[in-house]
Amino acid sequence: MPRRFLVTGGAGYVGSHLVAALCDRGDTAVVLDNFHIGHRRAVPDGVRTIDADLSNIAAVDDALSDGPWDAVFHFAALSQVGESMREPLRYLLENGGNGMRLIDACVRHGVGRFVLSSTAALFNAAGDDPIPEDAPIDPNSAYGESKWMIERALRWASQVHGLRYACLRYFNAAGADPQGRLGEDHRPETHLMPLAIDAALGRRPPLVVFGTDYPTRDGTCVRDYIHVTDLAAAHLLAFEAMEHGDIRWNLGNGAGYSVLEVLQAVERVSGRPVPHVLAERRPGDAASLVASAEPALKAGWQPRYAALDDIVRTAFQWRLAHPNGYGN
Ligand code: UDP
User: Is the whole model's pTM more than 0.90, yes or no?
Assistant: First the structure.
């Protein structure tokens, strides 16, 4: 049966891939976005958009009053670890504060289910063991802290008001829609994979490798890259699975790759060298973040683009086809 969802941040990177997945299965998505970071061209034709900032309570109330909603998917957020270390209070206020306002509005409007775009930045693992859902929470950045604020608020909303929730902690979202409809276009771009691809294509300066003295196999940070389409699929599954209770899922492939290994993958896929320079650590970065995604896998999640080269390939093809991303 077709369902109806409100997607905050549906014009952003992961949000737009979820909106495409919802449309593909015949569901109705309504996108609420302030379009500061998101792109209008990332929203499929025919999908209704509401131009609003989450700090505008009247606009959020107005959107939610046009129910019923099967769920709210909440993606809208600032998402840069580095920036959050320069402007921590902005992250706590905008991500944490707006997230809580949205939860409050959902409770007031009788929304039954809430799916949060959360993050591996909740964890600050010392070793390179895969991180399970119940690993100690110890955000290394204000970005991670801001998402933890929302997770905690959801716990109370569930306990006291019966709002069902799913916290989906993405490890490193990467890649692009395999059908070529969507891709990654942050401005400014700060993420490793698109920067490495553009460096290989000669469209950007050499990639700066942040830190070579981490306690990892080659001294650079290790991350678990997960395809954005597989993340979208996990959201659809979580929506079904939360019928049986609240959810906290770590979403990754369970395999870590160092920054230098990602550069090698980009070189294999593109057939070009990735010019790069070695530099100091970036504040806020944990040494190694690798997911143990067991509960999601047990619930039936099957990542389809788990191989690093497959992830890089979809990202590379999109950058090649869209030198200016979504344009200006
Ligand atoms: N990174 C890097 N150079 C860059 C961007 C990122 O060395 O220009 C490293 C970064 O320090 C981290 C990894 O690549 O260890 C992934 O960073 P990204 O910003 O893509 O995602 P994050 O892990 O911060 O969510």
Answer: yes
